[in-house]
Amino acid sequence: MSKSPFDIELDDMTLARARRGDMDACEQIYRKFQQPAYSVAYRICHCPELSRDVTQEAFITAFRKIRQFRGDSPFWGWLRRVVVNHTISALRKLPRADVVELQEYHAHTEGAQEQIGLSMDLESALTTLNHEDRAVVWLHDVEGYNHQEIARLFGKTESFSKTRLSRARAKLRSILEEKVNPIGFSKLESATR
Amino acid sequence: MQQEKDPLNLGSLPLVSPHPDDWSLIEAALRKQHSHRRILRLAGSTLAIAATTILAVSIFVYRPFATSQAPAGAELLQTAGVEEIAPIDAPPPDTLGSLIALSQELESNLRKIRSQAGLMPTSVVIYQVELEDLVAQVDEELSMHPDSLDLWSQRINLMLDLSQLFQNELRREYQQMASL
Question: Does the interface ipTM go beyond 0.90?
Answer without folding.
Answer: no
